[in-house]
Write a structure and sequence with these properties.
Length: about 350
């Protein structure tokens, strides 16, 4: 099977397979292990401070001399006003009380102490470390930053969840577009945090391939040869796999979280805003059941910042009911093999399927 195409050429990799950036799961070891399989590793930097970005990039550079992508969040940040201040206070009080009742004695931060990262500072850090591939999610970076990144020969991969968003990325001269189907685990890459389009991968990918000229990567539900080849048939030059790697040896998840994923049932996988204020696909738990339709969900990134200490304490105490455990709809791919083995396995299975 000939894997060479626009994506392998642009990204300088052997196979057009991309390991999803998964904040909280992907480690520098996972990123390097993906390169070892001839695929593109992606290092998630989320909204980390520039100093933390540099540290993670350096840790990864020590493990591999192959290209890898870095990934950031480029969302808009709602202004703090009287309504948000009041809403934040109420949510903080309620969630602290809920945590206490469940044996988690946490003090959540005051609104005026939150540190919100400006993605422009991350971009400076990324350029300073000579990274050559930047993927981003939750919006499109501004024109000035695009010009700066292009001047520094950084290849851009933007994420979309609708045809409209794909067209915006294409007009902004994003090199590659990552099309995220509704099946995908983790946060929706939608430009808006609420009132998001919820389009299944088949409809979305096919329509974007017809209307946009950029090389496409498809993300969402890929876990075996058939799903990979379906994405190829619908117009994707590359595929991005996330959930397939959640249990991998190099995953940062703790054994209790992996166990939770291993036994997750189809009906437990849902979209939720409870932990971050942005829709993410993961496994239903007690926190989601109580918070999802309450008045205690703040806009992103405030909910995310508010619940951080709760999630951290719950992780330490191994209380799966208060941790955001993300996973996509293809739950049958869960495995605890190494990242390299899992990716090589997917490549081999596809080659065998193609031959027969
Ligand atoms: C645990 C987890 C964390 C994620 N974090 C990020 C992230 O930091 N940045 C990003 O662009 N996408 C993130 N995603 C979404 C993935 O990039 C990708 O769209 C998704 O994993 C593909 O669907 P799949 O999980 O069905 O393979 C995350 C997904 C998961 C499962």
């Amino acid at each position: 099977m000939n894997w060479k195409n626009s994506i392998t050429d642009l990204l300088n990799i052997q196979y057009p397979l991309i390991q999803s950036p998964m904040f909280g799961v992907t480690t520098p070891q996972m990123t390097a292990a993906s390169s070892k399989a001839g695929c593109l590793g992606s290092l998630p930097l989320a909204d980390l401070s520039p100093e933390n970005c540099i540290k993670l990039i350096n840790d990864t550079q020590k493990l591999t001399d192959q290209p890898f992508a870095v990934n950031i969040f480029v969302n808009e940040v709602p202004k703090i006003d009287a309504t948000l201040t009041e809403q934040y206070f109420k949510a903080k009080t309620f969630i602290e009380h809920l945590a206490n009742e469940n044996g988690l004695h946490v003090v959540l931060p005051e609104l005026n102490t939150l540190k919100i990262t400006d993605y422009h500072d991350q971009i400076e850090a990324i350029i300073s470390q000579k990274c050559k591939i930047l993927s981003f999610i939750f919006g499109c970076i501004d024109d000035q930053s695009i010009a700066l990144l292009k001047k520094n020969n950084v290849l851009l991969i933007g994420t979309c969840t609708s045809v409209e968003e794909a067209k915006i990325l294409s007009e902004k001269e994003t090199d590659i577009i990552c099309v995220q189907g509704i099946e995908a685990g983790g946060h929706r890459g939608s430009f808006k945090a609420d009132k998001i389009a919820q389009i299944g991968g088949i409809s979305l990918l096919s329509q974007i391939a017809e209307q946009v000229k950029n090389p496409l990567i498809y993300a969402g539900g890929i876990y075996n040869a058939k799903t990979l080849l379906a994405a190829k048939t619908l117009g994707a030059a590359g595929v991005q796999v996330g959930s397939l790697l959640l249990g991998a040896t190099e995953s940062a998840l703790k054994p209790f979280e992996k166990n939770h994923l291993k036994w997750a049932k189809e009906e437990d996988i849902m979209l939720t805003k409870s932990f971050s204020g942005r829709y993410a696909r993961g496994v239903k738990n007690k926190f989601i059941e109580i918070i999802e339709h309450s008045e205690y969900v703040l806009p992103y990134p405030y909910q995310n910042k508010l619940t951080y200490e709760l999630r951290k304490a719950a992780k330490e105490k191994e209380l799966a009911d208060f941790v955001g455990i993300w996973m996509g709809q293809s739950i049958n791919g869960f495995s605890e093999k190494s990242t390299t083995e899992l990716l090589k396995g997917l490549i081999q299975e596809t080659e065998d399927f193609y031959k027969n």
